[in-house]
What we know:
This protein is mainly alpha-helical and 258 residues long. It is 71% helix and 0% strand. The protein has one domain (8-256). α2 (28-48) crosses α7 (136-161) and α7 (136-161) crosses α9. The chain is globular, with a radius of gyration of 18 Å.
Amino acid sequence: xxxxxxxxxxxxxxxxxxxxxxxxxxxxxxxxxxxxxxxxxxxxxxxxxxxxxxxxxxxxxxxxxxxxxxxxxxxxxxxxxxxxxxxxxxxxxxxxxxxxxxxxxxxxxxxxxxxxxxxxxxxxxxxxxxxxxxxxxxxxxxxxxxxxxxxxxxxxxxxxxxxxxxxxxxxxxxxxxxxxxxxxxxxxxxxxxxxxxxxxxxxxxxxxxxxxxxxxxxxxxxxxxxxxxxxxxxxxxxxxxxxxxxxxxxxxxxxxxx
Length: 258
């Protein structure tokens, strides 16, 4: 059964839903099913929009290198996606992980996010190995958005687990978590503040980080199932590292009592 196409202005909405669902899914098969479904739908929409096979093969290099407008588009999608992510507050996390300490909840969050991002990479790798050639740049974009969504959700929930949520209303908090993802730091240690306006230092750094992220996603498109294995491994490892980096900052703040 063909996956329904996703219109360009719906991608950030669906990516936010999938990132949260993949993170909170109970088993590996369900995580891979959710990630693969989104990747197929994005790819289908790209083909219908007229991206040919030859253009697709050229495009993957441009996206992975951050050339042209690829990373600008990704940055806009991430900025639009972040406020739509389903983030559990401290009370919801304690209810979901009853009787666990903040450290134990953080362990569970990092483990869950690393499995989710691994599933996204593995699912896209398998889908790219199928006989019908997908629109490769769309596959890279789909995996990148889901994994970034998983990681921003992880950062937000780590702050909640330690009782240190970012200040402000929802858009302000989620912008702060995007900045934290960009710098791999806790919100209170972000250099230069949170200014995501086009051309700002933070916006430029976000585009550079997304270019690197998309470059890792390209490994998922290697021949046969080697791409799935590479994508799953790289995603899981990098998400775990990010979670531990942010966690160290939060621990440091908790110990200092600030």
